[in-house]
Design brief:
Helices cover 79% and strands 0% of the residues. The protein is elongated and about 60 Å long. By secondary structure, the protein is mostly helical.
């Protein structure tokens, strides 16, 4: 264990700055960049992401890039859903009150009760996936699945009505 811990520490010290700079360029936020790099190292430490000796530097930069792209996609998805589900749509002048009401009605009536509840908890109440998971007693991947499915249905239904 000591050997592994020492190797991991050396890897962290030698690659952290490079990885942080790449993450910061992609995300534009220092805290998010630090979190992204820490997420990559956490996955390496717990063994969910295997590391090959021969291509460490390239592999680590690829991992951090992919983590950042996932964060950017999540950010855009949250913004889109929030725009559809809140009065932000009305305030921005891009939608009228009828569309917001239609989206909220769709969430209530057409999504499964669990998916609708999770969508509202995340976008209306600003709860994190982790908070929702704890409160409902379901896994993080189940929360993600409900949100992805709900947003897919909302996009499909309302994509032509937004213009």
């Amino acid at each position: 264990m000591q050997d592994r811990a020492q190797q991991f520490k050396e890897l962290f010290l030698s690659e952290y700055n490079r990885m942080f700079k790449a993450a910061y360029i992609l995300l534009g936020d220092e805290d998010e960049a630090k979190d992204a790099v820490q997420d990559v190292f956490a996955r390496l430490w717990d063994g969910t992401t295997p590391l090959r000796e021969e291509s460490q530097r390239t592999f680590l930069l690829t991992c951090v890039r992919n983590r950042c792209l996932n964060l950017i996609a999540q950010r855009q998805s949250r913004q889109e859903a929030r725009r559809l589900l809140t009065s932000e749509a009305i305030d921005s002048g891009t939608h009228d009150e009828e569309l917001v009401e239609a989206v909220n009605r769709y969430v209530e009536e057409r999504l499964t009760p669990q998916t609708g509840r999770i969508i509202k908890m995340h976008y209306n109440e600003d709860q994190s996936y982790k908070d929702i998971s704890s409160e409902l007693g379901i896994s993080l991947s189940a929360v993600n699945k409900h949100i992805v499915q709900g947003l897919r249905k909302l996009r499909s239904t309302f994509k032509n009505r937004e213009a």
